[in-house]
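stage 2 :: seqdesign
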């Protein structure tokens, strides 16, 4: 059991305690925070409070985090769009609104739950029980091609290709505004946002190297359709980089302006092309995940 406390800052006065906790302890999901409050494990000035309580500047908040037990991640029969599969690996076209792997307070309905059922538990164990078979991740609302390994040797070999930047990854995105050039590169380190631990940011002091190349595919005046090529694979890399040059992704509620006239569910971002050398055959393989319906519909609206 761990106790963590803090004093509410002036800028946070008036917000709900559940939101305040979620921003302070970004490693936990909102549903997990809600459970702590429901179980009366959160106190303000020594008294347990409900999730609707609005904090005041100077409030002394204390949260008790029960000892985390390694959960049993159960297989679930969830349909998968499989682009390729052999005895060593799978390439899956991940849909929108699906989390890749379980995390605190979120242990069902993930890609891992689905793959565990499909592969009958035969997945690499290098990343532990929460991320079996997962070599790389994409965000919940990002769609597209994702690599999953069935054994440790395959996983190690592909992780090394990822480390050496030899895996080919091409994304499609729609960004706000009219990019001034037909192509360009954003070379800016990415790390945790200094003020909001749930977000990433260009961070020259504590960030890690991050390089994104982009090329304009189509212009719509107030928006631009682009292809992005990753050299590195930092968390939220494309979203952070495009926002940093003044062209955030349409629908991005975290790094965008908050405007969403197209009523998108999350950012317009799709992992379209994934290419790698198969660790066991030595053959270069490349897969293309077709653009999802929502993305095609968005492009049609923008063209009109």
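stage 2 :: out
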């Amino acid at each position: 059991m761990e106790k963590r406390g803090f004093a509410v800052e002036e800028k946070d006065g008036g917000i709900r305690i559940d939101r305040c906790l979620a921003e302070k302890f970004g490693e936990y999901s909102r549903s997990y925070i809600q459970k702590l409050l429901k179980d009366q494990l959160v106190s303000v000035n020594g008294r347990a409070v409900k999730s609707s309580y609005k904090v005041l500047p100077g409030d002394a908040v204390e949260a008790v985090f029960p000892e985390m037990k390694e959960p049993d991640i159960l297989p679930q029969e969830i349909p998968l769009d499989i682009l390729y599969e052999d005895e060593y690996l799978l390439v899956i076209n991940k849909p929108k609104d699906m989390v890749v792997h379980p995390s605190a307070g979120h242990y069902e309905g993930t890609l891992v739950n689905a793959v565990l059922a499909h592969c009958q538990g035969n997945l690499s164990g290098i990343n532990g029980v929460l991320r079996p078979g997962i070599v790389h991740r994409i965000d919940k609302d990002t769609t597209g091609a994702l690599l999953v390994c069935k054994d440790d040797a395959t996983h190690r070999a592909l992780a090394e290709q990822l480390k050496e930047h030899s895996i080919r990854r091409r994304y499609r995105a729609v960004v706000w505004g009219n990019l001034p050039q037909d192509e360009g590169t954003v070379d800016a380190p990415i790390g945790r946002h200094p003020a909001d631990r749930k977000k990433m940011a260009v961070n020259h002091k504590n960030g890690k190297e991050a390089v994104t190349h982009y090329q304009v595919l189509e212009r719509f005046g107030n928006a631009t359709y682009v292809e992005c090529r990753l050299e590195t694979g930092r968390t939220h890399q494309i979203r952070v980089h495009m926002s940093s040059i003044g062209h955030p992704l349409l629908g991005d509620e975290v790094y965008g302006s908050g405007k969403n006239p197209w009523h998108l569910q999350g950012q317009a971002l799709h992992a379209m092309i994934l290419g790698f050398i198969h660790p066991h055959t030595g053959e270069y393989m490349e897969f293309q995940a077709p653009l999802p319906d929502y993305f095609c519909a968005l492009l049609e609206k923008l063209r009109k």
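stage 3 :: structure notes
- The longest strand covers residues 168-176.
- The chain has three domains: 2-65, 70-164, 165-304.
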